[in-house]
Amino acid sequence: MVLSDAPATRHTLSASELGLGYGDRQIVEDLTVDIPTGKVTVIIGANGCGKSTLLRGLARLLTPTHGAVLLDGRSISSIPSKQVAKVMGLLPQAPIAPEGITVADLVGRGRYPHQGWFRQWAPDDDRAVAEALTVTSTLELADRPIEEMSGGQRQRVWIAMALAQETDLLLLDEPTTYLDLSHQLEVLDLLTDLNRRRGTTVVIVMHDLNLACRYADHLIAMRDGRISAEGTPNEVITAEAMMEVFGLRSTIITDPVSKTPTIIPIGRHHCADDSDDETAVLSGEWSGETSS
Amino acid sequence: MTAVLTGRRPTRGAVRVEADTAGVEVVRRVRHRLRRRTVVVPLALLMFLLVMFCLALTVGDFPVSVQQVWLSLTGRGTRATDFIVHELRLPRAVIALAVGACFGLSGAIFQSMMRNPLASPDIIGITSGASAAAVIAILMLGLSGFAISAFAFAGALITALAIYLLAWKQGVAGYRLVLVGIGIAAMLGAIIDYLLTRAQIWDAQVALLWLTGSLNGASAAELRPLLLLMVIVVPLALWAGGALGGLQLGDDAATSIGVRVERSRLLLILIGVALASIATAAAGPVGFVAFVSGPIARRLTHGTGIALVPAALVGAAVVITADFVGQHLLPVQLPVGILTAAVGAPFLLYLLVRSNRIGHGG
């Protein structure tokens, strides 16, 4: 059976007093976080708040300037990279598809950490690739070159590569950017399936707050390189938090479909009560339904 | 074997329930087709090399039949055919193949690693480094023979180190390395030109022949160190090449599947430089072989990603064919480097025009 056996051991990921930056520019400072095991965690925050940097740090793409990322309690930089790759996968923001590569070959490269000197391509790799292609609905594209794919198909192929890696932890940096709404839902549903059926710990950085609220078990809101709030969407998403994290006026209603918070943003124009157009519409008191 | 995502509730939408044995079959079939191409193409190239090798040993001012070559190679030849085969044609043909294979492999390693067809050692100045050092050895130090090769080797390594350090900025990105390399190649070209203009005409002629890339000096004595070095470096290249499949996907994706990016890249650069300088030391900077072999090999084996072995074979085919044409098919005898440049330069133009049009390095 495919994707049905939950791994026996649960791997944990956390950061302790983590500092991350590029060159002289410090972006994340003194950040401590435990990623909930077996849950879907979504990291949100304004542009430049350090959410992608944090994800890159957790995925060991950036070396900490201080503190450490801990995988199963051990500093991730002390664990051989291939060994980490068997436990934790990452879908980067802008992976590069080599010219002319076929879908099957690309997805097969996710098997790299499972191969070695004496263990080249094996039947188990065929199985893993087939599963990854099947759950992402890309099996029928297996022998086609990646250039022929649409944006949505291409993203599913990249996710398939991360899935073929068969890791207990999966990190994704804006997996839904550039996708239309139905493909966004498709990707997020797929990740939820993975999480529910296999117990995969999923960490997603994304921009769409309402989808984040809908799909996250755990939300992390970041501001200026620090965590400003974390918890369930219901705990984190308040009009005050939106103002603090995004500098955004808003009102919070309940999503009638998922019963999760939905943020209605308020700009300077197009407010039904026209007299209030330019004046401060204080969030929360604007409509009957509030967040909490 | 039952279904994908056997779950508590029926799956909807994107995630369909499908028998996975069929999926495994599809993957196996596709991979088999790709693998077949990676076997068939090298075999066809090997056949071509065998034909060219026979031609190189038989054709010439003193024709020797295939049968006579065979007798001579197995120790039953006459003195005349033994001399022609063992002393003249065999070293030349083997060196042509070896040099071509080294250049081809080196070029393919650099191009895949940097994800840029312009990043081959003959474009980014590594062979220029070997040339400059060799010209200094010939013109200023009056050296000859093996000493020139040793100088060329050292020159290539020092140049590669300089390029690597200058292009380093929290890792080495493809485009910066290409640009720094082209700049260094231009500087080294100026040094070579300066030395040539200052030199005695006779010395300059020796240096020029070396600079064009020529197999005229090929001898059995040169053959042994070349093959010995290849026996060490080529397997190392094929082993280290395992990381290329990851590196091609970008540094982030490579790291996430467990490739140690900077370490692998440094190792591959060292191996690529070693291959290019081994070949340059043996035959001079035979222009554009490293540059054209990788793209040709990738086109032949399209859809299979990295093609190191085919690139080595294409390199060997290019050099032995160009040398044969230069020796026998033209009204005047030309050194091999002129012919490879005549083929390679238009290809460079084509790549530059194409990369300008589509906005990236090919």
Description:
The complex is a heterodimer of chains A (about 290) and B (about 350). By secondary structure, chain A is of the alpha/beta class. Chain A has 9 helices and 12 strands. In chain A, the strands form 3 sheets. A 6-stranded mixed beta sheet of chain A has the order 6-7-8-3-9-10, with helices on both faces. Chain A is globular, with a radius of gyration of 20 Å. With about 350 residues, chain B is mainly alpha-helical. Helix content of chain B is about 75%, strand content about 0%. Chain B contains 14 helices and no strands. Chain B has helices at about 20-60, 65-75, 80-115, 125-140, 145-165, 175-200, 200-210, 220-240, 245, 250-255, 260-285, 290-300, 310-330, 335-360. In chain B, helix 4 packs across helix 5 (about 145-165).
List keywords for this structure.
heterodimer; A: 292 residues; alpha/beta; six-stranded mixed sheet; four-stranded antiparallel sheet; 9 helices; 12 strands; disordered C terminus; B: 362 residues; mainly alpha; 14 helices; 0% strand; disordered N terminus
DSSP helix fraction of chain A: 25-40%
Radius of gyration of chain A: 20 Å
Quickly give the structural class of chain A.
Answer: alpha/beta
The helix/strand order of chain B is HHHHHHHHHHHHHH
Number of strand segments of chain A: 12
The helix tally of chain A amounts to 9
Query: Which two chains have the most extensive interface, and how many residues on each?
Result: A-B, 66 and 48 residues
How much strand of chain B? under 5%
Task: Say what oligomer this is.
Answer: heterodimer
Question: In whole angstroms, how far apart are the ends of chain A?
Answer: 42 Å
The chain-level mean pLDDT of chain B equals 84
- Count of distinct strands of chain B: 0
